[in-house]
Automatic annotation (TrEMBL):
Source species, domain of life: Bacteria
UniProt protein name: DNA-binding protein
Domain HTH araC/xylS-type: from-to ranges: 269-373
Record InterPro entries: Homeodomain-like_sf, HTH_AraC, HTH_AraC-typ_CS, Tscrpt_reg_AraC-type_HTH
Lineage of origin: Bacteria, Pseudomonadati, Bacteroidota, Flavobacteriia, Flavobacteriales
Keywords: DNA-binding, Membrane, Transcription, Transcription regulation, Transmembrane, Transmembrane helix
A family per Pfam: HTH_18
Sequence intervals crossing the membrane: 6-26, 38-59, 71-92, 99-119, 139-159, 180-201, 213-230
Amino acid sequence: MDKLDLLGVVTVISLFVSFFLAFFLLTVKTTHKSSNRIFAFFLIISAIDISEPLVSLFSDGPSNLGMLRSTVSFLQIPVFYLYVLSVCYSDFKWKPKYFLHLIPFLVVNALLTPRFYSVDLASKFDFIVNRQNMVELQFTHWLFHLQIMVYFAAIFLLLRRAKKLYLENNSGGDLSSYQWLFQFTGVLTVFYLVVILKNIFKFSDYTYVSDRIKIGILVSQLFIICWYLYKALNHPGLFRNIDSRLKLVADMVLEDQKTEPETLNDDLLKLKKYMSDEKPFLDPALTIQDISEAMNVPFRELSVLINHQLGQHFYDFVNTYRIETAMEILRDPSKSKVTILEILYEVGFNSKSSFNTAFKKHTGNTPTEYRKSLQMNTL
């Protein structure tokens, strides 16, 4: 099978998988339609971007449609950024300002209009043949690379902020969904770095290297899409419970440093008594807002108290009480037949992985190891 045939076969398979998954995301019944639609759009744009080997079979030379197809790549990363934004925040809504992400795409196409879009076929051929000397293509080349670096940096900062907000305001669930989204973004970052490498060879004297890398990109894209489908079906919730209007505690502290130490001490005593007496941590979906309302303590003060003054995130603060309660159960001889799974649900956890992680962080042992050590000590 020659190079062109291999490219064509891999391209067809990639296009089929991309469009099939996009169709699934657009038609599946879910409460998270915005995220699904944005990612479906990302898949469609990606499919258009990789369709060049097939388009070349039906084209006798450079065309306006072909050039427009190649510039669609400027929409990929901005759309993925919006997807991550929609996944992290439950109150995500489409805003007019998001259209600003179209600027690189529009600028590039406007730049290409005088010497490509508006000229005859012969001039288009000359433009492509001399592409290494064309300022427009050089600018497009470097702008695309800059866009990749800027957007992925913004995405990682967004994920970092979302994780901190989650830890400061929520106690339910675990961080596996965040880890997956972070991993997926990391894989895409590597993928686009390889794309950059391909483009460097494309505008050099070693274009055959670019073609070989292109085959690897198409194959890897198949695996990335399939991996996404598998993970997305197993993590349908992701975060989706973070309000974008929430502020990080570090920002609150900078804004307001007027809280008196006596007030903080009173609130701390009140908080500890409430946690011990009412045991709100048994609720897997407990949030810092729930405790604020129940104690009649302003959310801002409570958040600063736990996440700043106590030096631990709300997520860890609540889990400490859950682990202490779990340890009491494990030490109780009358409950020796209660399984670890039953205990974790009883104390407020909703996944075995998050329970094991929190328990080992607090005690240095897994729940099973802790129970075995207690049994050994009683012998």
